[in-house]
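User: Run a structure prediction on this.
Assistant: Running it now.
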Amino acid sequence: MELIHLENVKKDYVIGEVKVPALKGINLSINAGRFISFVGPSGSGKTTLLNLIGCLDKPTEGKVFVTGVEVNKMDRKISAKFRGDHIGFIFQNFNLIPVLTVYENIEYPLIMVQNIPLEKRKQKINDLLAKVGMTQQRNKYPAQLSGGQKQRVAVARALVTEPKLVLADEPTANLDHDTAYKVIGLMHEMKKEFNTTFIFATHDSKIVGEAEVLYTMEDGLIIKVQENKRNGEAN
């Protein structure tokens, strides 16, 4: 089933009096339950494309569909609600709230976005804490965690709302080799269990090697689509 569809998507930024094209006409379809990477040099448009799919920005031209909804037509309030219901985010710098515990960081989107009742929140959070191996750290604060532990919490927080789509911008850049592979493995497990689509913008060869399909970007365009036969079938 098609989860994401882009038609002739362009994005320009204006810096002073200069128009800078970040995306120059992207056509793209991604099915549900995939493990996808956008790769390419800095400035190629990876993060911009991720932001458009994640309803964090709007295209200058073209159409962006997520779960069959044309998200580029949404206003800010509706976009925020749509993100909360359908999309999880994992960031390079984890973006955990320092004054909240591990448990509270995972709980936060259930309160602020979905308003899930207390008992159901407890069950969902405790289940995910166990799945990511962070039950013993539930009452610790981010400053008390290693980088790998922080990213495990970030994965749990991204998945707690049961999103159809998780977007990750350089999620392993601040992790050592072994920890990065553990986190990637965890995301593979979550994909299989929840049929979640993971899309990465990355330079990291570890994620590149684990992705099912690679979209290579250069100068605002997708110049190559490559199937990783070891991990899946191309769309």
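The beta strands are 2-15, 18-31, 35-39, 61-66, 69-70, 87-91, 165-169, 197-202, 213-218, 221-227.
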